[in-house]
Amino acid sequence: MSSRSGADLALLLLGSYRNLVDEVVRELATRGYPDARPSHEYAIRAIRAGADSASDLARRLAITKQAAAKTIAALVERGYVTTETDPADSRRKNIRITDHGIGLITAGTEIFDEVRARWEVRLGAAELAELEAQLAQFVGDSPINLDAPGWAAGQELR
């Protein structure tokens, strides 16, 4: 095997991630979630972790408030969340995850486990465990927390 560059490594990791996620999205479609996107799961996880308004969601995902509002509108349209006027502040809309949204997260988790099992068959149990251990050396035992404030922008938590 020829020597690869750091950029090649980054592209291999990104491509592996994308293939895994694309497989999950395709399977979600067959299980009744044809309009699910990875960004929906990230947003729903952030909402489940406490982001209950567009401002909160924007901070947690490190996106603009306008982008958060668009994401919320898409989630409402698909039935994954509902919004209601905050009784203490009529300008604020509180976000709640619906049963359909919980179903999406549950199905996604199950499918990720199924895909991992297929990778284990393809690579071998010991090899996949070694790959995971090697990757954990770079990200630690707790890979990126997608609902942590500012994660995408690389902001440190204080």
TrEMBL record:
<dbReference type="InterPro" id="IPR036388">
    <property type="entry name" value="WH-like_DNA-bd_sf"/>
</dbReference>
<dbReference type="Pfam" id="PF12802">
    <property type="entry name" value="MarR_2"/>
</dbReference>
<protein>
    <submittedName>
        <fullName>MarR family winged helix-turn-helix transcriptional regulator</fullName>
    </submittedName>
</protein>
<dbReference type="InterPro" id="IPR000835">
    <property type="entry name" value="HTH_MarR-typ"/>
</dbReference>
<dbReference type="InterPro" id="IPR036390">
    <property type="entry name" value="WH_DNA-bd_sf"/>
</dbReference>
<dbReference type="InterPro" id="IPR039422">
    <property type="entry name" value="MarR/SlyA-like"/>
</dbReference>
<feature type="domain" description="HTH marR-type">
    <location>
        <begin position="6"/>
        <end position="140"/>
    </location>
</feature>
